[in-house]
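W.,

You were right to be curious about this one. When I first looked at the sequence I had no strong expectations either way, so I just let the prediction run and decided to look at it fresh. Below is the sequence, 758 residues in total, followed by the output.
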Amino acid sequence: MTGKNVTLRLLDKADREILKLPRPVKGAIYDFQHKFKTNPDSAGLRLKQLQGHDKLHSARVNDEYRALLLRLADDDWLIVSVKHRKDVYAHLDRLTYSVNRVTGGIEYVDLQVVQEEVLSPAAPPAAPPASPASPAEPVRPAEPAAPEPLFARWSEQELTDLGVAPSLVPVVAALTTEDQLLGLVEYAPQLTGEVLLALYDGKAYDDVLEQVTAPVAAPDPVDPEDFRAAVERPATIVTTTDDALREALEGEDFGRWKVFLHPTQAKLVTRDYSGPARVGGGPGTGKTIVALHRVKHLVERLPAGRTKPVLLTTYNKNLAADLRSRLLALGGEALLSRVEISHVDQLALRTVREAEPGNRKRIVDEAQAVREWRSLLDELGEDGWDAEFLHDEWTQVILGQAVTSRTDYFRARRAGRGRTVTRAERAEIWQLAERFTQRLDRLGVQTWDQIAERAAQLEAARARRIQDIDRRREEAGGLDNVHVADGSGGWLRYRYRHIVVDEAQDLRPAHWKMLRAMTAPDRNDLFLVGDTHQRIYKNQVTLGSLGVNIRGRSSKLSLSYRTTRQILRSALNVLGEEKYDDLDGSAETLAGYRSVLSGAVPDLHRLADWAEEREAVAALIESWGEVPHEQIAIAVPTNDMAREVAYTLREHGIMALEIGPDGPLGDSGVHIGTMFRFKGLEYQRMIIAGVTDGLVPRADVQRRRATDPARHRTEMQRARSLLFVAATRARDSLDVFWHGEASPFLRELIEVRPPAAA
C-alpha cells in the first residue's frame, strides 16, 4: 500500500494519554505519524493485527512504545492509544471499541486500565483481626455493611439509552464512591462521563436524556458495524492533519481548543443556516471557541481573493484584541488576511468618519454623559428628574428608536423602561433631550450611543441604495446602470458577506441595526454568540424588532470547560430565581448547564471591616505559595476598593496589577479590578472581595425598590450578573469575602456553607 492517500487520525483522550508520556516519546510520535502516512507497511513500523481483534492493530513508535490503531478502511486509520510495549499484549481481551448506538461515534475503552486505576485502589480494607474469643461464647466481629452502588437506581438498558458505553455498564454498576466515579470519568468516553455526573448530581433521568444525550444523538439510524461512517460524525472527536496533531500535543491549555470540539460545538460550527443564528450557553461552555471556529469554517468556503469579507466583532477593545490573537493561533496569517476584526464601537466610529470626515468631536463615556445631564439639570433648576433615568431614556428610546421629532417620541415604544410617563412628561423629556444634545454640540463632544446610531443610519441608507440598484438591475434583465452607481465611482457592495459577533448580549440596539445593514440578508449572514446571564450593561434588545430574525435558529451549549461543578453550583445560586431573556423576547434558562470538572467547594469569609478583609485576602494569597500570581485575581465592587486592595498587597510584598479598560497594567502580579473588568478572562484562583450589602448591589439600587420597581428589577438583575460573571472566572478555587452584612445575593450560599471563622 502506498502512503500517498493514507489518513491518520487521533482520537480525543488519546492525546491526554500521550501528554503524560516522556518528552522523547512525544517527539517519536511526531516522526511516527509522518512515516505512517507515507507508508504504513514500512518494515520499521511493524504494523500487525492484534490477536482476537478484527480492526485493532499495533505499530512501532520507538523501541519501547507502540501505537494502537483502528483500521477504519484500507487507507484510513485512527490512533486510539499509545502504550509501553509490555502493556500492549498482556490483556488484549480487555481492549474494547465500538460505535455508540446513540451518538454514532467511535468509542475506545481499555477495561484493564479502568479496573486498575478506578476500582482496585478503592478496594475495601482487610477485615480487622478477630477479638479474643470467650470459651463460653465466641465473639464474631460485625462485618461492615457493603456500600450502596451509586447507580443502582438505573437499569442497564436505561444507562445505555442515555449513551453510556455498554462495555462500561458493569463497571458503572460497581461504583460506590465519588472518587471512583471521578476516576472513571477520566478514562470513559465523553458522553458516558457527562451522563454519569449528571445522574450523580441529582438530575432527573428525563432531564439528562433531554439536556445531555439528545443534543449529541445521531440524526439518523446508526449502523454499529460501520466505523468508516462513524469517524465522520461529530461524536467522534478526532484530528487528522500534522499541524493539528502537533497542536493537540502541545498541552491542554494551549492546543486542544484549536483541535478538539465537543460534538455539540462541531455541529454548530459547520451548520448551514438559512439566516441569522444565535448560540447561547453559560460561562466557560466554549461560545467564543465556536465563534472562532465558525469564522475559520466560513473563510475556508470563500472563493480565492484578497478582500476581508468576514467580520468578527465584539463589544470592547480588550476582547477584540484577544479574538485577534486566538484567530491567529487557530489559522495563522492566511486566515487573518480574510477577516476584519474590530470592536463594534470602533467599527461604528470608522463608518461615521468615513461618511463625515469633518466630524472630529471628542468622545465621552457613559459616566461623563450622566455628569453632563446632572450639570444641565442643575443649571435649569430641575429637581424632578433623575439624571440616570433621562440618560437611559435618551439612549434607549430616543436614540435607540431613531426618534427625530417630538411627535414621534409621543408614539415611541417604551417596553422594559419601567416607569410610565404621561404625555406632559414626554414633552418635558423631549425638551430636556434637545437641550442636552445642544449642550454636547456646544462642548464639541459626542457619546458612543450617538456614534452608534449615526453609523446605523448611514449603513441603513447604504443598504437601501444597494437594494435599489439590485432592483433596477433585475428590471433591466441583469444589466448594470452606471447612472445609479456610487458617487465615488465604485460599485456599491455590502461591506461583509458574513458577520460573527462575540458577547452579543452587550451590544446596543443601534449596533444591531448597523450590523444588519452591513451584510446582505442571506444564508449564514449573521452568527452571534452570547449569554444574557452575563449581561453587564443596560442594552436589552429584541433582535427581531431590529431586523435580525433568529427564530428557529437558536442553540445552546451546556458543558462548562472552565469551572468545576462545585463552583458552578455556587455561581448559579447567585442568580437566584431571576428571569433572563434570550435576546428575542422569550425566556432564557441555564437548564442543563454542567461541568465534568471537580474541585473544592467555594470558601466564604466574613470579616469585621474592610481593613480586616484586605488583610485576610493578603494572608490567603500568601498561603497559596507556588501559585503564579498572574493566575490569581481579585474582583471588587469599586475602583477605589481596587486601589486599596492593591496597596495592602504591596505592603505584604505581593505585586499587584490593576486591570484598566485596556487590560492589566503590567506583566506580572495579582490581577485586581472591578467586576466589570473580568468579562472574558479566567484564572486558576479567584477572589471576590467586598461582597457587602450596599456595595453588591449598590445602596442606590436598593432605594429604587419603592420609587421605580421596574428599574430596581433591572438594576438588581445586572448586579447579580456581574457577581455571576466574577464567580465563573475561576478554574480551581473561589473565595468570597465581605464585611458587615453580606450581600443578599449570598444568602443561599451562606445557608448551605457558613463562612469560615475570621
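Here's what jumped out at me. Confidence is low (pLDDT under 50) at residues 122-136, 486-490. And, maybe more interesting for your project: The two ends are 71 Å apart (CA to CA).

Coffee later to discuss?

I.
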